[in-house]
Each structure stands twice: as C-alpha cells, then as structure tokens.
Amino acid sequence: MDEKRLGASFCPSRGQIRWFLTVLVAFAALVRLMVAYITVHYFDLSFYVDWSTGVANDFFGAYNNIGNLDYPPLFLFPLFLTGKLLGIGAVRAFDPYMMLALKGWQVLFDLACIPLLYRVLRREGQLVGLAGAAIWAVNPAGILNSSYWGQTDSIMIFLVVLAFLLLEEGRPVWSGAVMALACLMKFQSLYFAPVYAVALLTSYPPRRIFQTVAAGAGAVLAVFLPFMARSGWALPLEIYFGGFGQYQGASLNAFNFYSSAGLNYKHFSTKILGLIQADHLSTLLLAAALALLVAVWFTATEKSVWLMGFLFMQTVFMFTTRMHERYQIPVLVMALIAAARHRSRGMFASFGALAVMVFLNQFLVLQQIFAADKQAGWIAHYDAVVVALSHVNLLLYFATAWVALRVCYRRGHYGFARSFRAMLPERWRGSPPGPNPQRGAP
C-alpha cells in the first residue's frame, strides 16, 4: 500500500484527537512525576522553600519579610499554595513529597505546553499539531528543567506562547493581558517584549493597540498594587532592576560567546581581549539585535512571531551578558513552531540540534554541581568543557540563524520604506508593497 496515500487520507476525528492528547499528557505526566519524585535535591529549590513558607505566612508583605525574594509578584500566588503544602507534616517529613510540592507547578505547566502546542500547530494540519505536541512531551531539555531541576521556565514558556498565539489569532487585548502576566511571572519574559511590540504595532490599528496596552497595564497594576501598598511604590523597579543587578557574571554557565572567551563567572566588567568590557559589548550587541529584528520584520516576505522570537532570543542568549544555562530553553519552542509554520526542514533540524545542546548545558552544570569529587573524570576539566561546547553552540548559532534568515527571504524581500508605509492609514499610502522581483520566488 502506498504510505503517502495512506497518510494523506488519514484525518483523525475530534474524539480521536482528544484521546490521543489525553494519553500523551498522562504518559508525559507519569514520566515527569517519577523524575520529580526520585530526584531529591535542594539546589535552587531551597529558595522556593524559604519563599513559599514566607509567602504563606504573610502574602502581601512577602517582599518586606523575605530578603532574597527577587521574582515578580505573580509567582507568589503559586508559591502561596506550595507554602500551604509544605506546612503539612507528612510532606515536610518525607523528601520525595517535598520534591513533588516544590516542583509541582513547573511540571504542571510543562505538561500544559503539550496541548497548547497542538493548539498552535493544528492550523498546519491535525497530524502536524499532534506531532508537535508529542515531540514536546518527550523533549529531554524540558523534562530535565522542570522535573529534575525544578526551574520555572516552563511557566514562562506557556504564558509567552499563549500570548503570541492570541496575538496571531486576532485577539490582541487578551494577548496583552497574558503577555503582562508572563512578565509578572518571570523577568526573562521581557526578552520577548520587543518581538511582541513589533508584531503588535505592525498588525493592528491604533485603537486596538491602545486597548492591548491598557489591558497589559491593567494586569500589571492589579497584581502589583496590593504588594506596593505594603512594600512601597518603587517595588517594581526594585524587583526588576534589583533582580537583574544581582547577577554580575559575564556568563553564568551558559554556552554562549562570553563562555567561549573564557569569561564564565567572570565579572561583566572584564575586558574581552583587553579591548572592551563585556557589559559594554553586550549593550552594543543587544542594540544590534534590536536593529536586526526591526530590519528583518520590515523587509522579510515570510515571517512570524515564532521565527522572529527564535532569531531574537537566540541572539540575546548568545551575545548578551548575565545569561544562565537554561535561558536558551524558550528558543526550542520557537524553533519547533517556526519549523511547522514555515514548512522548513532546516528549522526542524535546528530545533533538534539546539535541543541536544540545551540538554547538555543543563545536564553538565547539574552533574558538576552535584559531583562529590570535583576532580573525577571530565568534571576535573569542567571549565575546558564549557569553553569547547560554547564554541560549538556559537557555530550552531550562525548555522541556525542562516537557516532562519533563508526562510525569511525565500520569497524575495520588501523595501524597508515601502513596508513601513504599509503601517500607515490607507489614505496616506500608495499601492501596497510587493516582493522585489529581482529576488525571485521559491
């Protein structure tokens, strides 16, 4: 039988899709909960113990009573419930139960990303949506991050992806509120704000833009005001700038440009090749990344928030300071969605290669931290391993950026000025811009 004809003729029903996703999420939950249960450690999780206990005791006064609390206030809501769980004697007395309580929200949102990915990708075909969901269900980098380590990146990924989806589907007001919640949950969500802003400003009329900004501002005020009433009106500045300022390493175990230059855990004021401070170079490269984002958005004939999110976050991770190893994880979901959206095998290969690299980055860091003998095996050469793999990741950056840019321009290009005119009211502009015929079409 012709497999291509069989695949093309198979169209699952809604009931079959629901059952598939249910079983997929159930199996993924079993794996994640098992990993969370048996991997007992308190590296970073000790912060959550202190925070959740303090939040449970005095919710709105948390920032006054918990000295090292540097997360935005939305994270305090799940921490409150975690604190109540930790107050149960049976949970406190058994470490595996503690692990489930401390990692539970991270696991829950990692699982929620599975049906969300199906929702994002189903417009490309039901099977494409199911395949994307299944790939995320077995993504080792995500499982290690949420279930083993207990980091909160899965919560941020879920909210950012949901915000981008709503923006893409023509529901900007709801999208603005969700994007604000993402930034209120985790500081790193702000890295996606430029992509979100460019897409919003070029896709909707002024009235809808104003409504979206108002919805986001309303969400910020609704969450922040009760805490500001107890901790002062400067609380937002203290949280975001204070949290950013406490990490002063050029790189914090990230496989990026600064680690490739031997600056892992070196102060960001360290000069590169004796010429320029790392933080000054970081500022220049961040400005270049923003300029690249705008230029590509206005000239590319094939683009999406997913493809632009991939390009921008990859550039930020590789070329700005203070990056942790896990900050590259959101790149994976952007690459996976962009691969399906743009029918690009190159983008899918990029996702696969980066998934391996992100997994290794987290795995090697954790192994080095938990190793009883720091001079055993490869761990004795950890610094050299970081430098070597950072060079590999740097080469991978240029390869994947080339793939992404080829997707952006495979249908030719628009002139920047003509594309900018397309944003103006119709009576102010001439004929709509079209691709440059000299560049051709695929």
Automatic annotation (TrEMBL):
What would you give as a GO molecular function for this chain, any one? pentosyltransferase activity
A single Gene Ontology CC annotation of this entry is: plasma membrane
Q: Which UniProt keywords apply?
A: Cell membrane, Glycosyltransferase, Membrane, Transferase, Transmembrane, Transmembrane helix
- TM spans (from-to): 20-43, 74-94, 127-143, 149-167, 174-197, 209-229, 281-300, 306-324, 345-364, 384-405
Instruction: Name its cellular compartments.
Output: Cell membrane
Look up and give the membrane topology term: Multi-pass membrane protein
Q: Choose any GO biological process term that the UniProt entry carries and state it.
A: lipopolysaccharide biosynthetic process
Task: Identify the main location.
Answer: membrane
Looking up PANTHER family in the UniProt record yields: MANNOSYLTRANSFERASE YKCB-RELATED, MEMBRANE PROTEIN
Q: Say which family it is in.
A: Belongs to the glycosyltransferase 87 family.
| Protein name, UniProt field | DUF2029 domain-containing protein
Give the organism, scientific name: Anaerotruncus massiliensis (ex Liu et al. 2021)
